[in-house]
Structures are given as structure tokens and as C-alpha cells.
Amino acid sequence: MKPLEIVKRVGGSVAIALLFLYGWTLVVQFRLIDVIFVSTPVKIINDLLTILPQHITWEMAWDTYSEMLGGFAIGAAAGIGAGMALHYVRTLYQWLQPYILIFYSIPAIVFAPLFILFFGIGADSKIVLASWGVFFVFLINTMQALQNVDRTIVNAAVVMGAKRLDVFRKVTLPYIMPWMTAAMKLGMGFAFIGAVVGEFIGAPTWGGLGWYINYESGLFNSGLMFAGIAILAALIMVTTYILIYIERLLVRWDPSKR
Amino acid sequence: MEKIISAATGKNLLTVEDVSKSFVDDRTGTSIDVLAKVSLDLEPGRFVSIVGPSGCGKSTLLNIIAGLIPPTTGQIRFGEEMMGAQGRSIGYAFQRDSLLPWRDVEGNVELGLELKGVPKEKRATLASNYIDMVGLSMFRRYMPHQLSGGMRKRVELVRALAYDPALLLLDEPFGALDAQTRILLQDELMKLVAKKTQTVLLVTHDLDEAIALSDRVVVMSARPGRIKSSHVVDLPRPRTSSDARSSSKFYEYVQAIWSEIRDEIKLQGER
Fold this sequence. Notes:
The complex is a heterodimer of chains A (258) and B (271). With 258 residues, chain A is mainly α. Helices cover 82% and strands 0% of the residues of chain A. The longest helix of chain A is centred in the last third of the chain and has 38 residues, at 164-201. Chain A is globular. By secondary structure, chain B is an alpha/beta fold. Chain B has helices at residues 58-66, 105-115, 120-133, 149-161, 179-194, 207-213, 241-246, 248-270; strands spanning 4-6, 14-24, 31-42, 47-51, 73-78, 83-84, 87-88, 90-93, 167-171, 199-203, 216-220, 227-232. In chain B, helix 5 (179-194) links the parallel strand 9 and strand 10 (199-203). The two termini of chain B are 32 Å apart. Mean pLDDT of chain B is 87; it is low at 1-9.
């Protein structure tokens, strides 16, 4: 990309953000909405600068992030494994299909109290909740991807002497990779939601950003609440860019991923 | 299951004996006969084409020979040179794209060699020789989506030939190409297979192509397919596709064979 194009693209995004923040400030200034509900951008930045140097802030961020990562890893591994099992053992799929649809449709949040009962108030229950949505994203993407593997390419490999394992390594695995990277990005969102919602519903004091956002909003400290949300948003953004980078490495060949 | 008896087929590379195939329609549960007692001999070094109305089971026959699907009844017998260490020694170029989209030209051509356990350095040399033969040396590092349709077909052809199979199967390989590119590729195919008197079995709906390329054209009947007739094409070799077309005998062959196919298409229409 030429420098001018970068300026144009990034500049546009920044301009939209500035315009939004300025509009926000005006709305509060002219008392359209009470400051206690929405705070102001300046106050939020001030609050952010107050809590960022505090050790406990980083600890909470790490709590949430590690729950997200744990839930992501468990959900992804289980989802890929189950997806493969259901693809290769069709009877199993036929038996389980209705239950998959039911459990996929039920919002995971309804299980949150149950998970806290089972796995305790600490990180474990959040990891399980985070892994829930990730599991289904990977399960469905894995099955879809395996279903989609091009028969002609498989046949070509078989005629050239490929055994089952060769077909899997040299055709199936690279073929499903774009689905897997798509599942990664989608699943990451689910993992964050699971971790944060889990903390909202019940966590130890100072137990994660979800807990903190919920706590400060309860005290009507809207500035601090938005500061917590800003930290969470920053974590999500950084993680998204990491995943986009990983995706480029894994499916460099896919012309739609450029 | 499939019966393969190696050797004991005399001088033939391949003998198809009374092969029938029926599929069961998943929705209606009825059985559809696709091939009915097909018998065919293939001598080494020959270029044989199969023509026939669409849906007559030509491609099914190729897939059975390639071992991708088993015949319902009948058997395929292979000559000794067909039986390699890893089963039948077949190269297959499909009608649809079958290049690995995540591998460049060289990586695709190396696939068969890799699966046959050819060591890495030898793979690279062999692959680049074959890539040179079809004039793609400049494109060795290109990915399939960066190539034109004709280029991709060239890659598919040399990929099927790179591991030196005893038999080359071609299933309407040039069907999706424009007329000019098709003739260019027919000529390149002629050059490729002339180099080592490759045995080829080509399925096509393009009668001109079949006659221009082949030593023998086999006509299949409408479904369920059986062999209706076999025509020896006596045109001088080596020849190019356009050489063949400019010969007066060429049109005699076209007329003779076309009248038979037309009868079959009519038959199919009446059903």
C-alpha cells in the first residue's frame, strides 16, 4: 500500500472516532443526557489514566484474558475433535444431530449459574462458559469444512497412490484450513463473551474486567465503567489483529484472504 | 469386491471384461444401470478414445478402471506393467480442476512423485523437466488461481505424467476450454505422449478431438452404456491436431462415427 492510501484509510477511521467523541461531549454539554449515565470522553480518559498504572487493573485484565484463552483452547480442541468424529462416523451424527441443534440454540448464559455451582466461583466456571460457544463454532465449521472437501482433488490424490493418511495430510487438512481460521476469529468473540458474561454473573471481588465493569456501573461510576470497557475493547482488538496475522500465515494461498 | 488379476492378459495392458455398474438412487431407492457388460482391450502404446452420448457412463468406466469405484459385476485385468508397488500405475486428468490450490505449479506436479516416495531432489528435477515440456518454466512458482484455464490444464496433464504411469486416463480434459486453446493443448498432448509411446484412454464428447488424437475410437451406446462399435483411425503419426483435420480421410471417419452416435442420441431422446 502506498503511504497516501494508508493515510486515507487510517485517517478516515480516526476522523469517525473523533467526530463520535466530540458529538458525545456535546450531547452531555447540552444536557441531552445526564452525565451520570454516559460520562464524557475526557472524564473516561482521565479515569483510564488513573486505573491503568494500578496493579489490580492488569491483574483483572489478565484474569479475563486467561479465561478467554483457556475457554478458546478447550472449545476449539473439543469442537474440532467432535466435528471430525461426527463427520467420519455418520451414525453418530444422525443420533446426535437434534441435540446439537438444541444446545447450539440455547444461549449459553442460562447455564452460567449451573457452571458456577459445578466449577466454583473462580476462573474454572468462566473457562467452561467461554468454551461453550467456541465448541459449537468449531464443531459446525469442522463438519461443514470436511463436507466441502473437493472430491475431485481427493480422487486425484488417490489415483496417484495416496493412502487415507496421505489424503488427510496432503488434501483434507490444507483444504479445511480457511474454515478453521474463520472459526478462530468467530470463536474468539464467543470466548470473550463467555468470560465476561461469566464474571458479570458471579466472580470473586476484583475477579476480572467483567466483574469490574459490572461493579463500577452498580456504583454509577460511569467513567470507570467505560474505562473498563475500553481496556476490554483494546484486548479484543489486539487479539483480532493477532488472529488475522495467523490466518495470513496459514492460508496464504487463499486469494480471498488477501 | 473388485477382482484384479495381474498378468495372464497376454499382450494387453488392460482388459475390461463384462463390466456392469448400477447405482442406487438415494431418494427413489431404484437402481439405475449405468454400464451394461462393457468389454474393452487396450494394447500398450495405443491412444484409444471413448465417445458416446452424454450420460452413457463413459466417465464411470474410467473411474472403475482407475479403482475409484468398484464395478457391480465383471472385472478389470491389468498387464504386468500396470501393477506397480502401490497398486495400479495410472495417471488421471479430470474434467474438473483438481490442482491443489495451496500448492504452486511445481508443488502440484511433484504431488504424485511425493506419494510414490521419490526422493526430494529427484522430484524437483523431474517436475521441472515436465514443466519445461509444456512451456511453463516461467510459472513454476505461480499458484493455480494465478494461471489461465489452459495453463492449469497443462499442469494437470504433466502432473498425471510426471510419475511415469503405464496408463494415462483423460476424462474430457479440454471440455472447459475455448476452441483455440483446446487445439493447442491437443497438440501438446500429442507431443507429450509421443515421447514415450504412452498408452492413453481418452473420454470425450468432441468427436473431432477423438479422431484427431486416437489410434482407435470406441463408440458407446446410450445408457446403460455398452460398446457399440470400434473404429481404427488410420492417420499417419506423428501428427498434429490440425494435420489430422486437413486429411480427407478425417471427414470420412467423422461421418461414419457421427451417424452411429446420432442413432444413440435419438434412442436416448425417445426414452
